[in-house]
Description:
46% of the residues lie in helices and 22% in strands. It is of the alpha/beta class. The strands form 5 sheets. Strands 16, 17, 18, 19, 20, 21, 22, 23 and 24 form a 9-stranded mixed β-sheet that branches. A 5-stranded antiparallel β-sheet has the order 2-1-5-4-3. A hairpin with a 5-residue loop joins strand 3 and strand 4 (105-114).
Amino acid sequence: MADSGDLQTRLQDLPTELTLASGDHWHALFDVVRDPIFIHDAQFRVVGANQAYVKQAGIPYQEIIGQPYWRCFPIGDGPLPSCSRALTERQDGSDDDFILPDGRIFRSRGFAVYDHSHAHRVSVHILEDISLQVAMEESLRRSEEQFRLVTGAIDDVFWLSTPDLNRFDYVSPAFDHMWGFPRSTLTTYPDAFVDAVHVDDRPYCTRPFPAGRSEPDEAEYRLLRPDGTAAWIQDRRFPIVDAAGKVILIAGVASDITERKNQEEQLRYQGTHDLLTRLPNRALISDRLELAIAQAHRHNRLIGVLFLDLDRFKLINDSLGHSVGDVVLCEVAARLRGCSREGDTVGRLGGDEFVVILPDLGDQDEAITIAQRLLHEVARAIPHPDHELNTTTSIGISIYPRDGTDVGTLLRNADTAMYRAKDMGRDNLQFFTAELNARVLERLTLEGALRRALDRGEFELYYQPQVDLTTGYITGMEALLRWHHPDLGLVAPGQFISIAEETNLIVPIGAWVLRTACEQMRQWQDAGLPAITMAVNVSVQQFRSGRFIDTVRQCVSQCGVEPKLLELELTESMLAEEPDKLRTELHELKALGAQLALDDFGTGYSSLNYLRHYPFDTLKIDQSFVRDITTNPESATISRTIIAMAHALGLQVTAEGIEHQAQAHYLRRALCDQMQGYYFGRPMPAADATALLRKGEIGGESEAGGDRGELHTLLIVDDDLHVIAALERLLRHEGYRILSATTAEKGFEQLAIHGAAVVISDQRMPGMTGTEFLSRIKDIHPNTVRILLTGYADMATAKEAVNAGAVFKFMSKPWDNDELAEVVQEAFRRHVVRAAHTAGMT
Length: 842
């Protein structure tokens, strides 16, 4: 079969006469063509057609001849435009496409046949079925449109190029944003694609596609945009091969992976650095120290390892908040870096612990010099807009190879030395010694024994009474843990409680203490003894266990004791850790019925805030304030303030560490509710505590009545007994209760036990002058009226004391009896006014 293009060529080559005269040749030539062909004259009447046309028209050949061709074949209602142009413009018409009723698409390709005079004789039309071609073209067009829509909508760049990247056939619109310049640039300058890549990464970008490889290839490189910004690109490339397997095109998808790279870099950084201070962390510190050890071993050099722990940093965190604590840590980190030598490593282990590695040390003295410089720098005040920040550091030092030849040993020994620096008063440096190592081993041994102590029944509870000084009766007992070590004997709590807390053994030990204390309460009640409060100390680890409230509930329920008789004691430091969670749990304990006490009150920095947010029933004044309460104005003022504040908030107050009668009477006079200490009873076994409870009263009225007649009591303090006797003779008929003391120390004691309205003191006494003694009395016993006896030489000092308010009047020696008696009377009247004023305020 001939095709239509071949037919047109052959018709043009035939002589015109033959073409017009030989109908057989028309048919012979047309019938071999598979496409429909028809011939029409100038009036568009069909004068000839091939078999394909007849078959397509469905009309006998004889009926086709002479008919307008559009009536024989459904191609429209008139002549095709190409036919009209051929007749009027004497040129071959262009192709005409038309659709048949059945949906097929045909293309008419016509040309004219002329005679020798160039007159049009006939036109020949070849009809080609292009349905499949049109469908394929439409499918391709849609595919291309979809491809452009998809590649134009995604952020990745899709591109097609020759294998050598010398010509880009297609680049998606995302290129403009990712590369930073128009993709049209690649049309005239294809190298712009690679020129934008970092010079170090271009080999990855331009490497040829491996021969014979059909799998995708991938490269990552850095892109430098014209605006100065940079990006990481992941370029995945796919080969497009011909039938012979030759790569003819490269298809690529470029993705911006900058964010992923940044995250990977951040993760790598986090793995080796502390994010707050930007210092090397424990992992990198270990790596650096290991490298330093290897170099020191080769060159026979020393290494110094400095272990630093900030002093009282927890107080800053607890009182001012973690944000302020972070400021301190960052400033300390900067100062440590500033003090270090080139090649040194400054790192943060965590919390407030830092390490400085000093490689290539000449001698031990060099480590001392650097450590002293660090001590000085850390101790400088830290600037802050809202607070005055001050801290110091304790430094422990280990030296390679003397104190260890591996990373773990050197760090551990420096840590041990640091704790020695803490014990020595902080803000100093200590070197590791064998003695310190022995202490560490002793501690480890103690820890191992502690782990077995509970199972072996080596613990025992001792009980210390708490006394109401108004009545003298025991109102409670504090349960105190004791450890009977099989070899060491009775181990003091200070030696093992901290170990129990650090190892979390305090949780099972604390549960045992709570149950044993509740069982003892039950035994006392079954024995008919008065129901008293049982105070039990609680550790923060017990709350962290998540089981503490259930443990309390089970103990009081199974032992059959009232929850209100159980007092749980917490310290201020506990409240700073997870305060919100702890506050919720404390409210749950209150709902259960338990009493809550805040122990060691006044030693922290957030006490008032704790009282406002936590449901405490009792405050316990720390023994550090009680110890010198009768002689130290600050301790006395703090204690009285705590008592007054607690009562204003509806809280009870217990004072700890009462060892002397004077302390007890002073606190009773300050309206403290109850007390405990060696003065009332040392911690004792359960049997002794039971006997004490049967007795019931410890102090009673003998303790309570020490201050009777205070409004009429006069205290005379003078180391000269003749002066005391003379004053007693002068004033004994005035109705005063006269007490005397020959030293300031005894004077403090008399005032604490008995109280006094008026105090007369000599200026010149051994150990303490009269003005100093009366100045302290002014703060410790503010309602007293104070009179100073002095010689002429002490007049200036006496006047200063009067002006400062420490002294009401001063009398010179020898005195006028009538004048002195009148001054004493005026002093008692003034005391009455002061006492009434104070009573009105309270």
